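Figure S7 source data.
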Amino acid sequence: MPDDWLRGLWPLFSPLRRAKPQTAHQISLVLKTKGIALTNRATATVFLNTERRIGEISPLIFGGLAEHMGRCIYEGIYDPASPLADKRGFRSDVLKALKDINYRILRYPGGNFVSGHRWQDGTGPRSERPRRRDLAWRSVETNQFGLHEFMEFAQELGALPMWAVNLGTGSIQDAADLVEYLNLPVGTSFSDLRAKNGQKKPYGVQYFCLGNEMDGPWQLGHLDAVGYADKAREAAKLMKLMDPEIKLVACGSSNTDIATYPEWDRTVLERMGDEIEYFSMHAYAGNRTDDTDSFLASSLHFEDHANTIAAAIRIAKAKNRSKHDVYLSWDEWNVWYKTEGDDGNWQEAPHLIEEVFNLEDALVVAQWLSTFLRKADIIKIACIAQIVNVIAPIMTKEDALFKQTTFYPLMLFSNHAAGHSLDLLVQAPVHDTKMYGGAAQLDASASFDPETGRGALFLVNRSQTQSLDVTLKWEDVAPEGFTQGWQMSGHDPKAHNSFEQPDEVTAHEIELPALEGPQTTLSLPPLSFTVLLSRHAPA
Ligand code: AHR
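Tokens for the predicted alpha-L-arabinofuranose complex:
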């Protein structure tokens, strides 16, 4: 809708006026808060072809970080004092909500925490485990939840463990000893110790991270790119000698603002890319200037970031004349900008970065997950940071939890995106944003599983004011029909859930559209995320 047209209407609504809005967008927002809806629609078309595929979707993109930070582990996962704790001290309500999300991989024990962590502290009888200062979060770590507890917890969730080893204060020998403890059959010192501590059978952990954010000056034992690459390469050598089956993730840049990005990535990949299977990306998005239009275009930045690191991988591979493939592990991602603080004041389980997420945050999380699908050929692991209480989709107090807005896109993607990611052709209006220039009003991704005939479509209408009528056109074979659909939307981008109002923003089931030949039309309200499941005839 042209700005002039809407500005011309504004005097009609002058009784509503406090400060005169300047743009059509501001006028629409004011009218919306007064319950006045303008017919303000745009159209878009999405062309789908079940044979036009980007890559196989790795289930491991639905992962999470469980860090010893704040109240993620203590009072989150493990809380023996809670009336909701099971006999192991695990919160049964948290387990249920985590199972609903359906995490396939869990990164542990950090995050920054790992760079000062001694893995042996979390083994053996609980009464003998040391209390220590956690220097990363200025907290006290009791070690009452440790290695064996985490393995049991991950197993209960059906998630693969991804162990981060300490390459900050830790030695390459410590890293190799951890692999021995976790993965070797009894008969050596550390594997025998594991058996003594109650686990005779090797755990067979496959995924290990070679440190955490070692590019960051805040990291305990921070190194420059050359120093890190050389230490990580030697750690990799020892760890793989201990167990050749393991898969390793090296540290990429901790964010795109850091001065060493992307030179860090190129240097590390060139010096040790042949020793790893995955290379990590970390990023946190935020609406720091309250510019919602730009924030809602965040996936442009996510794709740019992934493209840059994918390019660094290719350059290193070419430079080294290597045949070895490295994939991306986006093992810390989320929205995080409202809370700050790394000072736990030397308390146990302090309240750290307990961010409350709103509707616009959930729409960005949905775009992040769509980015993983659109980059399914290269992104094979991803972990939302974190899983409980600390910038997390689930918040707990002693006897209850609530699900944040971000819970819903994560759960819907994790349970329904499967098979292959489809290469969609999207035609949608493009709007200008301050941070990213032109952004299509529609952010879309889709999956299709030829074995089951199931399809899933994930759509975000980025506009704050304009509905979008989206026509879906199947270019090859149309589905037999739709099986289920959900939508989250609202007028207020800042709407959020709380213990008092846990269902302020959720995903609700929608009426399914009718197929007309190979196409259908779906209406997406402003500020919305929609999921539509389809069923194709089995091949
Ligand atoms: O997830 C919170 C922290 O953010 C992690 O510990 C660290 O790796 C990142 O900087």
